[in-house]
Write a structure and sequence with these properties.
The chain is mainly α. The protein has three helices and two strands, in the order ααββα. A hairpin with a 4-residue loop joins β1 and β2.
Length: 58
Amino acid sequence: MTTAYHEIAQRHIAIRNETDPVRRRRDIDDLWAPEGRSVDPLTVAEGHQVSGFLDAQS
């Protein structure tokens, strides 16, 4: 059984691994809320700017 959390995590991982920038942008816009936040020890990304954060992680 897949939980909502598992599905979100899988989609996030897929975005990190997506090499096509158009698909990556589409998937970020679909998954991330404009007010969403991603926080790790090195950076904070908010809203759809998470794209730049994910690009830097690739």
